[in-house]
Design goal:
This protein is α/β, with parallel strands linked by helices. Helices cover 24% and strands 28% of the residues. It has eleven helices and 29 strands. Strands 1, 4, 5, 6, 8, 9, 10, 11 and 12 form a nine-stranded mixed sheet that branches. Strands 17, 18, 20, 21, 23, 25, 27, 28 and 29 form a nine-stranded mixed sheet that branches. A five-stranded parallel sheet has the order 14-19-22-24-26, with no helix packed on it. β2 and β3 form a beta hairpin. α1 crosses α6. The N and C termini lie far apart (59 Å). Pathway: Glycan biosynthesis; glycogen biosynthesis. Homotetramer. Its EC number is 2.7.7.27.
Length: 419
């Protein structure tokens, strides 16, 4: 990070949109917002956007919460309370309750920022980075802010380069050779290619850089427009593309990679399959995402736990783990783990066999259970002898099984087995 980008980051506020439900995660988001979902053994999804901001030198952060926000707010209070006002640092939690009329939800992403105009103006940042709080990636936002300033753009939109025919699920940018956005198309059937790369398209990451003064004027106009849905992707960005200067910032220019990461890593873990895959991928010999990179730490709330413990050493009853990640407070008692990721405080009992298991905190797996390719919600007690992953029809009757063969297990599903 050079001096100029550091200086710009110090003048910036990050506004994190963390209100999303993530309905395609089904029961996993019944009690928590998607940004509060566990990821990678000890972190939560929102920790990536927040850590990127802190590591980029941004010390003013606002987090707008909405859907089932309790666990998210509790996590922010416990893990992100190290900001010091006397050092011009702050993290504000901004629940959707600022309105005085009967409608107190944020109407859209732009409305979430507009409702907190007074708080933003109180800090008087020169720039604002608007972020989605529900993606997994490492990015130096200061480089993107610098690109914004150098290009003279009204808005700079963070984009990932994706295979062109996979881009139809995103908002896609048609750009010229100078990164100017000529057209912003939402979920196109035939995505426009990148100049010089006919097989790739630029898809929006939901990251935007604005000068604060310009953004607040724009939001005021948008709030007064009865036709608007008050959404960045739906209303504001297309309007700037048409009437102003919008510039695309390819993620590859500011993504943070250690020596082990071969290509830029960005994931939306918005389905059970994607969530399972991204967690299990961390157990690879050389994973695509390096969470061991001390140069770019992922900050989080760390519970005080004893180290993981492996016990018993008899044939068929040996505490062992291969190609797995096991968090603090876990006790692997006479069980075998193969390509598993266990969060804090998971207990597995004798003769159980786990393969491709993502177990959230404080799961208990009783004796002789055999589990393959499953995601287990927090605090679930797996009964002795339960077998999952061997009979697809039976699994689909008792639990939620995806088309790709991943089974989601929650406590109500376990309780229903006895009814």
């Amino acid at each position: 990070m050079d001096n100029e980008s550091q200086r710009l980051a110090a003048q910036t506020m990050a506004f994190v949109l963390a209100g999303g439900r993530g309905s395609r995660l089904f029961e996993l988001t019944d009690r928590r917002a998607k940004p509060a979902m566990y990821f990678g053994g000890k972190t939560r999804i929102i920790d990536f956007a927040l850590s990127n901001a802190v590591n980029s030198g941004i010390r003013r952060i606002g987090v707008a919460t909405q859907y089932k926000a309790h666990s998210l707010i509790r996590h922010l209070q416990r893990g992100w309370s190290f900001f010091r006002a006397e050092r011009n640092e702050s993290l504000d939690i901004l629940p959707a309750s600022q309105r005085l009329d009967e409608e107190n939800w944020y109407r859209g992403t732009a409305d979430a920022v507009w409702q907190n105009k007074d708080i933003i103006e109180g800090y008087s940042p020169k720039f604002i980075v608007v972020l989605a709080g529900d993606h997994i990636y490492k990015q130096d936002y200061s480089r993107m802010i610098q690109h914004h300033v150098e290009s003279g753009a009204d808005v700079t939109v963070g984009c990932i380069e994706v295979p062109r025919m996979e881009a139809s699920g995103f908002g896609v940018m048609k750009v010229d050779t100078n990164d100017n956005i000529l057209e912003f198309v939402e979920k196109p059937a035939d995505p426009p290619p990148m100049p010089g790369h006919p097989d790739l398209a630029l898809a929006s990451m939901g990251i935007y850089v604005f000068e604060t003064k310009f953004l607040l004027e724009l939001l005021e106009q948008d709030a007064a427009n009865p036709e608007s849905t008050q959404d960045f992707g739906g209303d504001l960005i297309p309007s700037i593309v048409k009437n102003g200067k919008a510039v695309a910032h390819p993620f590859s220019r500011s993504c943070v990679r250690s020596g082990l990461e071969k290509k830029p890593y960005w994931r939306d873990v918005g389905t059970v399959d994607a969530f399972w895959r991204a967690n299990i991928d961390l157990t690879d010999f050389v994973p695509e995402l390096d969470i061991y990179d001390n140069e770019w730490p992922i900050w989080t709330y760390s519970e005080l736990t004893p180290p993981a413990k492996f016990i018993h050493n008899e044939e068929g009853r040996r505490g062992l783990a291969v190609s797995s990640m096991v968090s603090g407070g876990c006790i692997i008692s006479g069980s075998s783990l193969d390509r598993c990721l266990l969060f804090t405080g998971v207990n597995t009992h004798s003769f159980s066999q786990l393969e491709g298991v993502v177990a959230m905190p404080y799961v208990e797996i009783n004796r002789k259970a055999r589990l393959k390719d499953v995601v287990i919600d927090r605090g679930v007690i797996i009964p002795a002898g339960l077998v999952v992953g061997e009979d697809p029809e039976l699994d689909a009757k008792r639990f939620r099984r995806t088309e790709n063969g991943i089974t989601l297990i929650t406590q109500p599903m376990i309780d229903a087995l006895n009814d």
